[in-house]
Amino acid sequence: MSRRRSSEPSPTRTPSPQWGAHPPRTLNELLYHDTVKKAFANEAGNGTEQFSKTSVVDVFEISPEHGGILREQMDDAGIRDWLKLETRPTRMRLLFIDAILDWPDMLPVTESVLRDILETFKVNPRFIDILTRQHMPGREVHRHKTGNIRHEMWYTAVLRSDGSAIRYQNQNQINDLSRQFAYWQRFCMWSDYQSQGQGNGSDCSAATYMIWRCPHAIKQAFFRTFTGETGTKLLDNPMAVHAFIMDKILLRTYDFLAYFSGPLYRWEKKASELQTPDDYTARSRAFLALARQIHQISTDYDILQSSIQHLKAQTEWFRKTLNARADIEDHIQDAQSTMDDIFENLTKEVKLIGTYTSLYLERSKIGVDECFAMINQRDSELNIQIAQASNQDNRSLRIIQILSMIFLPGSLVSSVFGMGFFTTSPGDNGGDAVFAASSRWWLYFAVSVPLTAIVMVVMLYYQWRDSGKAEEQWSWRRSSAALDPEAQSLRKKQN
Question: Region (Disordered): which ranges (predicted)?
Answer without folding.
Answer: 1-24
